[in-house]
Amino acid sequence: MRLLRRAAFCSALIALAANAQTAPATLTLDLERIDLDPSALGSLLVSTGKTLPAGEFRLGLAPVYERRPLVAVLDGQDASVIVRNRLSTQLFGAFGLTPDIELGLQVPLISYQGGENTDALGLSRPTSAGLGTPRISGRIHLLDEDRQLVDLAGELAVGVPIGSKSALGGDGYASFMPRVSAGRQFGDFRASTQLSVLLRHIQAVGAERFGSHFGIDGSIAYSIERFRPELIVRAFVPFTQLPTGYEVLASGRYQITERFEAFALAGPGFGHLIGVPSFRAMAGIAYGEIAPPLAPSRCKAGQAHLPEQCPDLDDDGDGIPNRDDRCPLEKGLAQYHGCPEPDRDHDGVPDSVDRCPDEPGPKDRQGCPIHDRDGDGVEDEVDRCPDPPRTTGARSPTAMEMAFRTMWTTAQTSQARPAITAAQTNRSS
Fold it and tell me: What's the rounded Cα separation, in Å, for the pair 261 and 284?
């Protein structure tokens, strides 16, 4: 009886005759082999040696379908398709901590998986849903293509051991993946490659040992306005005697708005390695400050583009490239990362020369307002009586009272006139 390695479960019959009378064994391993690049500056899966600018982010989700990722084969025939179909959702995010340091997160959620009865193999059937192994990563930008021919970055990803063992989402042990990635632009094409080592617990799976592997990935992408097709090749070389696995995937990304994109990916797997499906498909959406950049040949002054699509241009003409300019459409200064000088009161006078930075005022007064408390048009600084006249606080007379006062004043005036005239006559005589 000859045992072949097929799509993930190598020699998994585990001596069928010897185990026929024992309780079913439980497989506890992390079946997932898809690692997204959370920032996706060059490729969906392959890091291109770049990092997000400081303060920028990218968030997204991607449902993933896998066909036959775990099959036991005996004498050239499928003995049991342990996992025939698997559907998971990858949640991911990336954040630029500094211009050269990026943090990433990927969380797999196993939504559904199903296969054949495995009692004949002496194995319990995996549960249909659960949590995969979350991965936290940190990436540092080492070389820049503009100065050192290629973009180069180093990265470390850590697998957190909280994945569901019964759902083939984890083995209960932490894993570590150091990785080096590089990329370069060739006209309208972007080439990327990465080398990685997955270090994780090695365990017996039947007569075989399953665990760590080397990873070699490469991609080439082409920019067509808002659309970006891509070809990805992945290889997994186990530390043990298991066979090498391969995937060839075609993908496409479309920029819907300035901060929103949709993407899809699909392709076959080869090599009879645990976790490498015969077919994989993925579709998803992502939101973030950085959209897939256009090729340099399409980034020309006068052509329609977004600043983040053409990082080498200087759209506001302040001498600071878009990639380093936090205000790419406003002229600014280097000490303010390409943004104009701060002006808290928005009076057009920068705070550095504004004598009243929290009160708007004209430039000829160094940003200070004109004060005129009594509203007479004379500034308080030269007004000898800057305060308005004081009031007693008494109420204003009514119209009837004013009319009565007028009549009273008229009557008093009429009585006084004859006396004044008589006195004037006596003086004349």
Answer: 9
